[in-house]
Structure formats: C-alpha cells, structure tokens
Specification:
Oligomer: single chain
Strand content: 15-25%
Distance between the termini: 74 Å
Length: 440
C-alpha cells in the first residue's frame, strides 16, 4: 500500500508567501551566555516570543558556545541583530549588537517581569492565538525631538530600537496583520527605557457591559459558590432593573455602590476611543466601516533598561566608546583614545594586506613550480621518444641482414620433417578388448 502524503501540514504556497512577505525584515538571535538562572532563561524565551516570526525561536545554546561563534555565523545566516543576556555581580545585563559592523549597546536590566507574571496579575487571562505569526508594531514614546540641546546618544538609541522591527509600509500592509504592539518609552526623570508588549483587541462599541454580560455570561470563578458561568440575577426583580440601572446606583442587597467594572458604561468609553475600521479585521463581525473600540492588553514581558555604554564595532573588535553612563572623558582624552583606535585599525588593515600579498605570492610560486615541472616532464618525454626511434631504426637493419641468410635453412626444415614423417610408421595405441555381458 502506498504511503499517504501529508498535505495539511505542508502548505507550500503559504510558506512561499510568508517568505516573500518577510524579505528585507531584520532577523535576530536572542541568546544567553554564561551562568544564568531560570528567570533569565525564561526571559530569553519571552523575548523570542516578542520578536517572532523574525527570530530563531528554537535556538539552543550550549555551554561550550562562545559569543564569538554567534558573531561569526549570524551574518552568514542573514541575521542582523544579536541580543545577548547575561548576569553580572550587580544586575542582569543586555547587549544589543548590530551585525556585522556594530554599534553595540550595553544595558543594565533594572527590573523585569515575565509573561507568566503579567498574565497572573491581569484581570482576565488571555489565550495566545495567531498573534505571533506577524511582526509587532513598534511605538517610540517620550523621546525628545532632535535638536542641538538633545543628548547625542538618544537619537542613536531610538534608531537602534526602531531597526529591530520591520519598517511600516502603509501601502502594502494589511490591517489584519496588526496584532501586537511593542512600546519603547523613555523616562527622562530616571534616565531609563521602559519595554512593554501588548496585544490589540477590538470590542463592540455602544453596547453596555451589562448587555454583554447577559449575552456572554458571567466569568467563571474558582470558588465553589460561583462555579457556574451563568449570570446571577436572583436579587433583581426584573431584568430591566439590571440593564437600566443608572451608573453609581447601588444594587439590591448590596452594601455599597457598584464599581466601574460593573457599571453601564459602554465598552468603548468616550467617543474618542471609537474608530472606524479601514478594512476587515480578525474576529467576529469586525467588518470594514464598522465602529469599534480598540483595547490594548499587556501580555509581557516588561523590562526597565538603563543604557550603560555605546561603542563602535562588535564584541571582541570594539572601537571607540561613543557614550558611557559613568565614565566621562575630556576632549583631549577622547581625541587620544580615538587616535589609538585609528592606529590599531590601520595596523590591522596593514597586516591583512600583508597576509593577502603573501598568500598571492605563494600561490604564484606554486603555479610557477608546477608549470616548470610540467615543462621538464614534457622535454624528458620528447627525449625518450627520439632515442627510441633511433634504436628502432638500427634494429630493423640488423633484422633484415639476418633474415636474408636464414631463409634457406628455414625453407628446408619443414620439407625434411615431412619426408621423415612419411618414412616412419605411425605408432597407434593398442585397441581395448570389449567385454560383452549376457545372461548365462
């Protein structure tokens, strides 16, 4: 019986379309190196979740892998960014490297929360669906505009975070692909950068929360008294009392006023929160032109980063230090440091040129030696052929003189043998007696 071919899990057209859609998008490696705990390991997994689908989600690090290994292999695989997490004596550290030539940004992770921590503290848990099939949208907030008074490292910091994600193209982008948002907010008071991750949700506009609770049912709770998913209207005389109760009016049998969560406010709040969909969106009844309320649900991870250093180049081949949080240098020291880096770079280029010239010289000598050996072999072969031809001509003359005198001898030989054979009687083997067996 022929083996059945799996077609449902191998959608070639979808894979080709996704590959063409992601062409030109930045790719990233998110790794940990050194001895880190379980929390930092989980933070690495959460960051890979945020950067999907343009990151290596199933990349496995080994203890013998060095940072140099990733820096060597990443450009070959088309990777443009490397995010490396490690643990220092003070706090966890994050290095963001732009491949293949830098710059390198070093951060200190002041505080962080994992995805599981955010989901536990949220009021309504959300199941992860198809949001991670498309890249998130990046939002840069609270960064100062470029001006002569703006610190020079802030524009570079902003562009570095912006280059981590694919650029927006409104002409070709589909509205249904906008499923997540990454917020990068600068805090000028603390001098830190806040990292947040949200999922976009669309809610009906103009429908009160009580009507939605009647239609959808009450949320299920873990307690024994409220284990069912049905709405409890036992204290209400009529369903109209529940639906038409004014905002802030106490419910029957309650000691205080109802909260804002159970009020009759609409899902969208003010009219400024409602938007008209420019195209069809994911979800039920989210059609083009309908008025909907947009909500952002935080799913994590959450980080507070402090920029420590910006340097040229990549780790192992770092150049001049463009910015440092704690070490400040004068203009003379900065100029001397820059001159030393220029001298080192000039020396490196000179050594590289010398190595290349030596390799070319050795290859030329090797080719010349092989060509000389071929010419010598060809000349030796020609000399052997000429000597063989001269020896062959001398042998032919000798053979001709010998053959002339020996023809008579050879001519008599066969006839004399035939005559002798005729005179001598032929010897025949004796005949064998045949015994006949018969019946006696």
């Amino acid at each position: 019986m022929a083996r059945r071919r799996k077609n449902r899990t191998h959608l070639k057209s979808a894979g080709v379309a996704a590959r063409h859609a992601n062409d030109g998008a930045p790719k990233s490696f998110i790794i940990k190196h050194g001895q880190v705990g379980s929390s930092v390991t989980q933070l690495v997994r959460d960051l890979r979740k945020v950067m999907e689908p343009n990151t290596a989600s199933r990349l496995k690090e080994r203890n013998r892998n060095k940072l140099k290994d990733y820096l060597t292999m990443a450009p070959t695989l088309g990777v443009t960014h490397l995010l490396a997490l490690t643990v220092t004596d003070v706090a966890p550290s994050l290095r963001m490297v732009r491949l293949p030539a830098g710059p390198t940004l070093s951060f200190r992770v002041e505080r962080y929360s994992l995805m599981k921590d955010i989901l536990k503290t949220s009021r309504s848990s959300r199941s992860m669906g198809m949001e991670y099939l498309t890249a998130p949208l990046v939002v840069l907030a609270s960064f100062p505009p470029p001006s002569p008074e703006t610190p020079p490292h802030l524009p570079l910091l902003m562009k570095s975070f912006q280059s981590l994600f694919p650029p927006l193209s409104p002409n070709s982008m589909s509205l249904s692909n906008c499923r997540r948002i990454v917020l990068i907010a600068y805090n000028p008071d603390r001098g830190t950068v806040d990292f947040r991750h949200y999922v976009i949700t669309v809610k009906p506009y103009g429908v009160s929360k009580r009507v939605r609770r009647v239609l959808e049912g009450a949320p299920k709770k873990s307690s024994a008294n409220h284990s069912s998913g049905f709405l409890d209207l036992g204290n209400e005389k009529d369903v109209a009392d529940f639906l038409l109760r004014k905002r802030g009016e106490p419910a029957p049998g309650s000691d205080g006023y109802e909260s804002a969560a159970s009020s009759a406010s609409s899902a969208a709040g003010d009219d400024g929160d409602a938007v008209s969909l420019a195209d069809d969106y994911v979800g039920r009844n989210n059609k083009k032109g309908q008025k909907k309320a947009v909500r952002l649900s935080e799913v994590g991870p959450r980080m507070e980063l402090r920029l420590i250093k910006i340097s040229e180049g990549v780790p192992g081949r770092e150049g001049a230090v463009l910015y440092h949080e704690f070490v400040k240098k004068s203009k003379a020291e900065a100029a001397a440091l820059k001159a030393s880096h220029v001298a080192k770079e000039r020396l490196r280029k000179q050594r590289r040129e010398e190595q290349e010239s030596n390799v070319q010289r050795k290859n030329a000598e090797k080719e010349q030696g092989s060509r000389r050996n071929q010419e010598e072999a060809a000349s030796d072969a020609e000399a052997d052929e000429s000597g063989q031809e001269a020896h062959d001509e001398w042998d032919e003359d000798e053979e001709i003189s010998e053959v002339g005198g020996s023809d008579d001898e050879h001519s008599e030989g066969p006839w004399s043998d035939e005559e002798e054979s005729e005179d001598e009687p032929e010897e025949r083997p004796p005949t064998k007696k045949v015994r006949l067996r018969g019946k006696r």
